[in-house]
Amino acid sequence: MLPHTPLGQFNCACFTLLSLFAIVGGGRIERWAGVVLLVADLLTPLVQDRLDWMDPDARFFLIDLAMLSFFLPAALLVGRVWTLFASALQFLSTLSHPAAHFLPGINPWVYITVFQVYSYGVYLAVAGGALASLVKRRAIKPLPVTAMGAADKVNRSLPEPAPLV
Fold first, then answer.
1. Residue 143 lies in a domain
2. What is the pTM of this model?
3. Tens digits of per-residue pLDDT, 148-162?
4. What is the tally of structural domains in the chain?
């Protein structure tokens, strides 16, 4: 991410907004993912070498490795689909750093573009999980008292099911 360019500032703003949406609108795991992404948003510009920003830096690799250490267990332990997408894309994003380092023939713009594409995928997966969690929480509302009373009367009027032999 290049926070000193207009495109970099746009990316920073989008990533921050998606992180904040996950923190505000998501469930427990989405909020934690939003915090992890927000910390990465704040750390990335701080560790960036502004003189040689085309070089794949070990500091970015460490930030991505820390993010992967959150998303991979989340995908294995939490039963939500978005965690699989987020961990897979974060894994690919993390692997782009050693690939760019050990294969110096890779054009730096290709490295930056691949890194951005995978990063957007991770953020969109987390935001999608937060949206799904928000919709799920809003869809499950308690029934009004009158509706529960009517449902209770209907259930009492039904005969008991016959036992299975």
1. no
2. 0.74
3. 555 555 555 556 666
4. 1
